[in-house]
Design brief:
single chain; 171 residues; alpha/beta; 5-stranded mixed beta sheet; 3-stranded antiparallel beta sheet; globular
Length: 171
């Protein structure tokens, strides 16, 4: 996270939602890795006077993505004020595995999905609870390896092949 220390950016936040999703995906049979960048809360770099970046370094994020080379990546965008951190991570993912499917979820993604999908780099935004939605996304995508297989999944927002935002019904 990037921000002022007084804003509480060093507070530990357990990614329970990602753990739930990881368990569901593992149960389905896929290999899962969760990179909790905030677990490295003691890694702190001043990016400008009074503003700090807390958490896993970009170099370590790159290293872990390069080692795993995922087909699908889920990124949590929980807080509007840290939206840019999410997109910085997505940019790193796209540089290393440009062909992977990038899914974005979390409170901010649910609150402003059109903004999240419109920022670039995100293939699918999940609105609301993701347990059933993410499994359907991965199931469809693993069979087809075609993003058009994701067009009609409830609880998602996608960009269609023409770059038009498509908001599917809520789950």
């Amino acid at each position: 996270l990037t921000g002022e220390l007084e804003a509480g950016i060093t507070n530990t936040k357990v990614p329970l939602g990602l753990a739930y999703l990881g368990a569901i995906i593992e149960e389905w049979g896929a290999e899962v890795r969760i990179l909790d960048c905030l677990a490295d809360y003691d890694v702190m770099v001043e990016v400008e006077k009074g503003k700090f970046r807390v958490g896993t370094s970009e170099e370590d994020i790159k290293k872990q993505i390069e080692e795993f080379r995922p087909d699908v990546v889920g990124v949590n965008c929980s807080y509007s004020m840290y939206e840019q951190d999410t997109f910085d991570v997505i940019k790193i993912i796209r540089e290393i595995v440009p062909e992977c499917l990038v899914i974005c979820g979390g409170a901010h993604s649910s609150a402003d999905p059109e903004r999240v999908i419109g920022k670039g780099g995100v293939d699918v935004v999940i609105r609301g609870e993701a347990e059933y939605t993410v499994r359907e996304i991965i199931d469809n995508y693993s069979k087809e390896k075609d993003r058009s297989s994701l067009n009609d999944i409830e609880g998602t927002i996608i960009l269609d092949k023409n770059g038009i935002v498509k908001i599917n019904p809520e789950r």
